[in-house]
């Protein structure tokens, strides 16, 4: 006797689909929000009730979309049952989202839908019931009243998707879920929120989160990142996209985060803001983020890459090029697309990395100078005062005298110039300031001072401060009341010392 030759084994298929492709609860909930948006919803409520420990936890998504008649409602719970199958004009394409995401997270999903309060239709999928039937089917929708907990949210038209028996959610996951939903949904649907769509989690409005930090309507509007350059547009010929009528466009936007504004925050604060470990590229399809990661950048990811962002926007005509799956939570770009974008994007990424590195160096340099100057100024009282004849050079602008502090209050300044002379520094006195000018053209600056004061700011402030103090002490010593003969010796010593440092640090020989 021949056994059934159905293309799928119903019981095993339903069980297997529970393990298909959703990273977490937020990704599965996003499928329901996609359906709501596709139905024209402008208000979407996500309600979390009960406790997993008591097996009464539920997740409900309530919208004010157009609702479904009974035939469409029943089809919506079939795998591939969408009446918009392979339609590239919206968020969904394959009709897998509702049943796939629901059974991934729960053992029973119920759907209520109505196009008027007088006709509310209800059907469901229950894994345990499906397993007991030889030929499982979606139950015929029946008229029913909207459940009491959701009546106050119901509009004239709408849909409720209710997940019961959440057997894959732990108590810890449940406690963290509201915050994680706010974070994920705020970033995933930021463009829809900016267009006026309202999403709520347990009555609290989800705020848009812009990973580029350039939009003013976001969770952290006080962070003032700037767009870097113009938006880059790549136009694709129809032949590359399966013969699409229009030439689809890929738009690439980069942003540069404000290092000076944020660098002083603690690592924990920057992590909470999404700066630390936030480097990446946001892939946005049809105004909905489908992935975030290190795409098209042909360089090793570094800490300084946390200080820039990239966004790539495309339309559904390019789904195959971006490798979009039916769950819309990942991108696997085709080699052809990767080759088209990677050189441009990598070049910009390297430049932004360089700019971030330079900005951090400038900040660290400034802190090194300020810390060293403060210490030297405070401890100058323990040293013999400098002779007044050296306090003011003949070339000094006398207009500065009225605003100068008393000559007994010595100040120390570290400056950097590209000097023509071969010494690695020069000492100057100006009013009550001891100035040491480092020669940026000398090996001492390039191979000793700059490496010590670059890198992590904590290292620069520590070791950098002490080498700056060493140089300030050198400058003050030279500023003492030496005889002319002594000064000639000091000048020769400075010249020879500079030459020796240059040679030892890889400079030209002879000098």
Task: Give the arrangement of secondary structure elements.
Blueprint: H1 10-17, H2 25-38, E1 43-49, E2 58-63, H3 70-76, H4 97-105, E3 108-114, E4 120-126, H5 127-131, E5 142-143, E6 158-164, H6 171-188, H7 190-194, E7 198-201, E8 204-205, E9 226-235, E10 249-256, H8 259-262, H9 267-273, E11 281-285, E12 288-293, E13 308-314, H10 319-322, H11 335-379, E14 411-417, E15 425-430, E16 433-439, H12 443-453, H13 457-478, H14 484-504
Parallel strand pairs: 1-7, 11-13, 14-16
Antiparallel strand pairs: 1-2, 2-6, 3-4, 3-6, 4-5, 7-8, 9-10, 10-13, 11-12, 15-16
Helix pairs in contact: 2-4, 2-6, 11-13
Outline the structure in words.
This protein is α+β, with helices and mostly antiparallel strands. The chain folds into three domains: 195 residues, 2-Layer Sandwich (Heat Shock Protein 90); 128 residues, Ribosomal Protein S5, domain 2 (2-Layer Sandwich), CATH 3.30.230; 112 residues, no CATH class. It contains 14 helices and 16 strands. An eight-stranded mixed sheet has the order 5-4-3-6-2-1-7-8. Strands 9-10-13-11-12 form a five-stranded mixed sheet. Strand 11 and strand 12 form a beta hairpin. The longest helix has 45 residues.
Features:
511 residues; alpha+beta; Heat Shock Protein 90; Ribosomal Protein S5, domain 2; 3 domains; five-stranded mixed beta sheet; 19% strand
State the CATH topology of the largest domain: Heat Shock Protein 90
Main sheet: strands, sense, barrel: 8 strands, mixed
* Anisotropy-based shape: elongated
Compute the CA-based radius of gyration.
Answer: 33 Å
Strand content: 15-25%
Question: How many discrete domains?
Answer: 3
H-E order: HHEEHHEEHEEHHEEEEHHEEEHHEEEHHH
